[in-house]
């Protein structure tokens, strides 16, 4: 893989810190990837996403293939140019979103046929088509096409699903071909079954990928079950490749995942919550719509250096959120992305300095002492 | 008026260029004031509004008195601090918005009683209360409370309305008192009747204001009628005080008003149009939702230096507008405010250099040659 490499600089317990190098720049790990679903991280300009400390964005194949279409993005110079983000982009395979269209899809060995949620038009997504779309988008890190096994699944169902995903992983690898500077990641499935997770990890390594994702988590199983799987699943994946936990999560999910050896994560939570008025802070979650903030001259977090906290009172944020003003989404999203990236920097520094346990203890203590809003 | 002054640096025909000086900074004239209705210029951060070249914002007394209330803004340090804009703010008197609540208001000599469009609560707005609210907001330029005479109005109706506004102007002046560094502007009424406009101007000057607005225009009379009134109405106001045309307008309205001796204007058009997909350019209006922009790699305007034009294709702007993404409002509004401020700078430079006629001719020629969208 010319131009794509992963380096571990330090470890602390199972946690690792280092960097993924790509021709479009370095991704410091552990990394949190903001989600830019439809070629925009909602309510943010990309230069401001970058200013929060993000090294990489995630784009959604499903949304982009439907609108404006991968072919149109390709004609307009690729996703980076289209959305004005010249750093690395990871794209998912489209599989996860397609699976969630339960009423509108039909799955076969070949792939998934589904109807667009936008205009009802019919589409066919296969490993080969997913690779083609992600190539047209110009994605730096391409995800193999898989089935995200629903939760809960019995052992036989989980196995059938995992085995299908492994066959699709091979087809993804074959279709991806050799693309210097671009990486292909495989996705481990197996639900909550340790032997299936092990088998999936072996099959993926036999195929050979540039990185490995832990799939099928953050789908309703709860943090306790997720952590139980993360207690062993990442260890089954190669030590010298990046490990990506898809769709995670809340701040304490992220801390727990990093402790268990995860290098990359993505989630819509900081941006989506920002738009609905929830701010993540060191002390927990603030629901800015709560009437108690109406006359509060303090910022969301006195120690936060984001523009929302530097320049605005809770009283102002309460007002603009209640009034439905766009600036409320802009400021709250900015704050949340800033908080998430600061958390990642804190985790990276703590791992590098061998004080992750103290960092995690302090993280939980600050939240326990916090003055948070009931949601 | 300690700390508030107006200086004319150059004239060209009836047009003037100069500056209003206030303790919060200079306002270059002719000036366009973006509208920050509910303590935000919609979809913009104030530092970015400033970056477009705006020296002053307009705030709406009606909206702010209802939510979050003037008293709350006062407790939170005043409107400037509340909304993070430390430069001059002009507030309207609330009269115009209240009058438009035709079904929900009752007018007497004392003032206007009305029901809030937000929660149906009853409020009473008088010259005295309007002055109090604008003081609580911390407005730098306060507008007298008046009745914006509807259009069309017969001569007797217009006269009754104008005379009421002149009595309210005196009450506004009395209630405003002496507030060093803060200015009070009177508002000329008289509809399209030249003698009434003259009488209104005389009455206002007898009372004495720091600036004078031409009111009762841009209320549906059309550009031709508006220009007919502007051919004489501004001349009736003092040469050595700023003249403010309220609620104007489209780019060609602005050019025509400046030619006729107007120094200040405000309008929601650049921000509102931005949110609905219309971009103002030198060549006319682009409706970015039009399908012809779908695959267009060009910016809105090749010569524009705003972030929307520097960093994004029409194809991208079309996509995010169609997808209902917040970034479309952010970028389109930024572009429009940038265009408006660049137009104002062009007008100021042209007046200063005695070449306004050539500038105006070029302005119309570029639009006539333009490749614009049907709306």
What does this structure look like?
Two copies of one chain form a homodimer. Chain A has 375 residues and is of the alpha/beta class. Helix content of chain A is 41%, strand content 19%. The first copy, chain A, contains 15 helices and 16 strands. In chain A, helix 8 (194-207) links the parallel strand 11 and strand 12 (211-214). In chain A, helix 6 packs across helix 7, helix 13 crosses helix 14 (326-352) and helix 14 (326-352) packs antiparallel against helix 15. The longest helix of chain A is centred in the last third of the chain and has 27 residues, at 326-352.
CATH superfamily of the largest domain in chain A: Queuine tRNA-ribosyltransferase-like
- Structure annotation, total helices of chain A: 15
Q: Summarize the largest interface: chains and residue counts.
A: A-B, 35 and 35 residues
Under CATH, the topology of the largest domain in chain A can be stated as TIM Barrel
The structure class of chain A reads alpha/beta
Chain oligomer state: homodimer
Helix content of chain A: 40-55%
Question: How does the overall form of chain A come out from the CA principal axes?
Answer: globular
How are the strands of the biggest sheet of chain A laid out side by side?
4-14-13-12-11-10-6-5
The CATH architecture of the largest domain in chain A: Alpha-Beta Barrel
Poorly predicted parts of chain A: none
How would you characterize the largest beta sheet of chain A?
8 strands, parallel
Query: In percent terms, what proportion of residues of chain A is strand?
Result: 15-25%
First and last CA, distance of chain A: 46 Å
Average pLDDT, all residues of chain A: 96
| Radius of gyration of chain A, taken over Cα atoms and rounded to an integer in Å | 20 Å
In total, the number of strands of chain A is: 16
Q: How many structural domains can be distinguished in the coordinates of chain A?
A: 2
CATH class of the largest domain in chain A equals Alpha Beta
């Amino acid at each position: 893989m010319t131009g794509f490499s992963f380096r571990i600089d330090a470890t602390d317990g199972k946690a690792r810190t280092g960097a993924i190098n790509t021709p479009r720049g370095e991704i410091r790990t552990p990394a949190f990837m903001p989600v830019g679903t439809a070629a925009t991280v909602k309510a943010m300009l990309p230069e401001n996403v970058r200013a929060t400390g993000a090294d990489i964005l995630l784009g959604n194949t499903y949304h982009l293939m439907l609108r404006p279409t991968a072919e149109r993005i390709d004609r307009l110079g690729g996703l980076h140019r289209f959305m004005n983000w010249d750093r690395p982009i990871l794209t998912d395979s489209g599989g996860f979103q397609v699976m969630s269209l339960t009423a509108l899809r039909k799955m076969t060995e070949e792939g998934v046929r589904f109807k667009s949620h936008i205009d009802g038009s019919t589409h066919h997504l296969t490993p080969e088509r997913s690779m083609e779309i992600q190539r047209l988008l110009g994605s730096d890190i391409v995800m193999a096409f898989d089935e995200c096994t629903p939760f809960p699944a019995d052992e036989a169902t989980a196995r059938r699903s995992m085995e299908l995903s492994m066959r699709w992983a091979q087809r993804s690898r074959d279709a991806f071909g050799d693309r210097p500077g671009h990486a292909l990641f495989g996705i481990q499935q197996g639900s909550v079954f340790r032997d299936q997770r092990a088998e999936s990890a072996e099959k993926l390594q036999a195929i050979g990928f540039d990185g490995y994702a832990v799939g099928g988590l953050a789908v309703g199983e709860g943090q306790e079950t997720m952590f139980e799987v993360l207690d062993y699943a990442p260890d089954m994946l190669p030590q010298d490749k990046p490990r990506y936990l898809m769709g995670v999560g809340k701040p304490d999910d992220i801390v727990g995942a990093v402790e268990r050896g995860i290098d990359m994560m993505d989630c819509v939570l900081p941006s989506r919550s920002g738009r609905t008025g929830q701010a993540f802070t060191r002390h927990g979650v603030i629901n800015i719509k709560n009437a108690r903030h109406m006359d509060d001259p303090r910022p969301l977090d006195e120690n936060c250096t984001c523009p929302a906290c530097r320049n605005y009172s809770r009283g102002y944020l309460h007002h603009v959120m209640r009034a439905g003003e766009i600036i409320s989404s802009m400021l709250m999203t900015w704050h949340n992305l800033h908080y998430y990236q600061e958390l990642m920097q804190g985790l990276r520094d703590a791992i590098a300095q061998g004080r992750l346990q103290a960092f995690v203890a302090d993280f939980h203590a600050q939240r326990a002492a916090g003055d948070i809003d009931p949601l």
